[in-house]
Design goal:
Layout lengths: L1 H16 L5 H22 L5 H4 L3 H5 L19
């Protein structure tokens, strides 16, 4: 589900950069996707590892070059 929300927001931003849709429509799309993100969190957070990788909507929709690598909880693990 999170990949779909991310794709919708990124595609909307692409359309805005091409002047195909107005900025007000981008804001509406992001607000709708943020609401769905929170609904999904309440339904599946304990089962879906994606919510641990992207705990906030802003982290989900940020472009990859602007983010540090996701935290997996295994940092510093030696595997022993």
């Amino acid at each position: 589900m999170l990949a779909i929300l991310q794709g919708v927001v990124w595609f909307a931003e692409f359309l805005a950069s091409a002047a195909a849709i107005p900025e007000s429509e981008i804001k509406r799309i992001k607000a709708d996707c943020r609401s769905l993100f929170e609904v999904g969190r309440k339904a599946v957070e304990s089962l879906d590892p994606a919510y641990r990788l992207y705990p906030t909507f802003e982290q989900l929709i940020a472009m990859p070059a602007t983010l540090p690598p996701p935290q997996t909880g295994l940092e510093g693990s030696t595997g022993a």
